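User: Predict the complex with S-adenosylmethionine.
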Amino acid sequence: MRVRNRKGATELLEANPQYVVLNPEDAKGKWHEIFGNDHPIHIEVGSGKGAFVTGMAKANPEINYIGIDIQKSVLSYALDKVLESDVPNIKLLWVDGDSLTNYFEDGEIDQLYLNFSDPWPKKRHEKRRLTYKTFLDTFKQILPEHGEIHFKTDNRGLFEYSLVSFSQYGMILKGVWLDLHASDFEGNVMTEYEKKFSSKGQVIYRVEAQF
Ligand SMILES: C[S@@+](CC[C@H](N)C(=O)[O-])C[C@H]1O[C@@H](n2cnc3c(N)ncnc32)[C@H](O)[C@@H]1O
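Assistant: Here is the predicted structure with S-adenosylmethionine placed in the model:
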């Protein structure tokens, strides 16, 4: 998903350092200090306009959430939601998911979410998929031993690819949902894309994979 540049996005992000971590290199190893507590830290890589992380932060005040996106304009829309919801347990980070070891110490993150990640259907773009093995290397490093990735998508091709990628990496598939909304899964927080695609009748897939 590419979003048109939003005028004033930089200024908006810079004006809200209580939510936007502007020098993430300095945060490495200090995330609990930044949140001011020792609660678990969950991140969403590719958090888009922030409905999921904001909803999760509201629903789970005892967990800290970090929404991460590579697009500054997109992150500024997430900031709108965060400001509106006024929850203390959320931060936003404008960085590339492939560089997370620069900003998080080994094992500093307790859980990682990927939601409706860009499918990059062409084989020559495989390395850009967030479930490609080099991303899994990065995620594994910042998660604890046996850490988990929870992944949702409407894209059948990316879902199948990711199941294979997780398995080939040696991860355990703890749970697989082939139609999340028709299942008895409780506490699902919808993302922007999830709302859009499910309203069109698309099935939502979900997997919990453990290193
Ligand atoms: C299709 S959108 C989904 C947004 C949101 N998770 C949702 O479900 O509504 C994918 C998002 O991932 C972000 N993204 C893509 N590649 C990324 C990367 N390497 N690191 C961080 N974010 C990335 C994009 O900028 C975009 O906002």
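The chain is about 30% helix and 20% strand.
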